[in-house]
Design brief:
By secondary structure, the chain is of the alpha/beta class. It folds into two domains: about 1-120 and about 280-300, Rossmann fold; about 120-280 and about 310-320, Dihydrodipicolinate Reductase, domain 2, CATH 3.30.360. About 35% of the residues lie in helices and about 30% in strands. The protein has helices spanning about 10-20, 35-45, 55-60, 75-80, 95-110, 125-130, 155-170, 280-295, 300-320, and strands at about 1-5, 25-30, 65, 85-90, 115, 140-145, 175-185, 195-200, 205-210, 220-225, 230-235, 240-245, 255-260, 265-270. It has a nine-stranded mixed β-sheet. Strands 2-1-3-4-5 form a five-stranded parallel β-sheet, sandwiched between helices. Helix 4 packs parallel to helix 5 (about 95-110), helix 5 (about 95-110) packs antiparallel against helix 9 (about 300-320) and helix 7 crosses helix 9. The longest helix is centred in the C-terminal third of the chain and has 17 residues, at about 300-320. The termini are far apart. One of its GO terms (molecular function) is nucleotide binding. InterPro entries: Gfo/Idh/MocA-like_OxRdtase_N (IPR000683), Gfo/Idh/MocA_Oxidoreductases (IPR051450), GFO_IDH_MocA-like_dom (IPR055170), NAD(P)-bd_dom_sf (IPR036291).
Length: about 325
């Protein structure tokens, strides 16, 4: 069983601690939090061992789970990797692409594995339809959240939109050609609402919207491809697949038939897969354990996380233009 320790015991860090404590694939050794008062409180309330320094925690584990604020990801990752430890990094992988690329080089040099916490890849609704998303040509996503001071140390693109960027990059097998984007700071010092149009070399276009100042939460994506429309509701964990095929010569009484201007008839039918219930955060952590134990490639690699970060920064760079 892999020994694991958590860096950061904030909101998400406490979730990781609870799930790792339940996991059959890890032995939770303890955690480190830079805020002593918070560390003492978490340790007293939940019984997890609080380490006095990062170095002590890293020395005691095989895997370091980094759930600290984004600005400290790089420093924590470098320390862990140089100590020969595998790393799980919450998204975004780091603050800059240069930092992320250095982390990748170090993991190869020290022969350790890394995974990035793009948790929507493990969302049961997305997992249920991912294999049905084939060569989408138009994608639209909306990720809206009520205002929460947590996360406002970075623009909404790095806080929220990067989830959708990673999911889109995982299904569009083409390089990004061009990006047009706009973002506005309303409450924070950095943009709280943003929209981006991502154009790919194969002609696919993704229209991506994120906001952290909405009146209600929404996390939806729609994928349009030849003869199919696929929708994913990440929040409610439901999905829908609407397909079209050539209409039968003699349609049934309840068949849905569309006819275009040229007289071509298509039948609409639903092909909704079963959504298997899971805990996405626990699954992403445990699949990383499998990758370490079996010496296989993690589902969300450091390279995936870096490419999502690269596109996110290209979007942010558009804001001042």
């Amino acid at each position: 069983m892999l020994k694991i320790g958590v860096l950061g015991a904030g909101h998400l860090g406490k979730i990781h601690l609870r799930l790792l404590n339940q996991s059959s694939k890890y032995e939770l050794v303890g955690f480190y939090d830079a805020i002593n008062e918070n560390a003492e409180k978490v340790s007293e309330e939940f019984g997890y061992k609080a380490f006095n320094t990062i170095e002590e925690l890293i020395a005691a584990v095989d895997v370091v789970d980094i759930v600290t604020p984004t600005l400290s990801h790089y420093h924590c990752a470098v320390q862990a990797v140089k100590s020969g430890k595998h790393i799980f990094l919450e998204k975004p992988i780091s603050n800059t692409v240069e930092e992320a690329e250095h982390i990748i080089r170090l993991t190869k040099e020290y022969n350790v594995k890394g995974q990035v916490g793009h948790v929507e890849r493990f969302n049961p609704a997305f997992k249920a339809v991912k294999d049905k998303i084939k060569n989408p040509m138009f994608i639209e996503t909306h990720r809206l959240a009520e205002f929460n001071p947590r996360g406002t140390d970075v623009p909404v693109v790095l806080d929220l939109m990067i989830h959708d960027i990673d999911a889109i990059l995982s299904v569009v097998q083409s390089k990004v050609k061009d990006i047009h984007a706009t973002g506005t700071a309303v409450i924070s010092d950095s943009p709280d609402i943003a929209n981006a149009r991502i154009e790919f070399e194969n002609g696919c276009v993704a229209n991506v919207t994120s906001s952290r100042i909405s009146m209600k939460n929404m996390r939806k994506a729609r994928f349009f491809q030849k003869d199919a429309y696929i929708s994913v509701d990440y929040l409610d964990k439901i999905c829908e697949v609407v397909k079209m095929k050539d209409a039968p010569e003699i349609p049934g009484d309840f068949d849905l038939i569309l006819q275009n201007a040229e007289g071509v008839k298509k039948q609409i039918y639903f092909d909704n897969p079963k959504v298997e219930t899971n805990n996405a955060i626990l699954e992403e952590l445990e699949t990383f354990a499998d990758a370490i134990n079996n010496n296989t490639t993690p589902i969300v690699t450091l390279e995936h996380g870096t490419e999502a970060l690269r596109i996110a920064h290209r979007i942010i760079d558009c804001f001042g233009k």
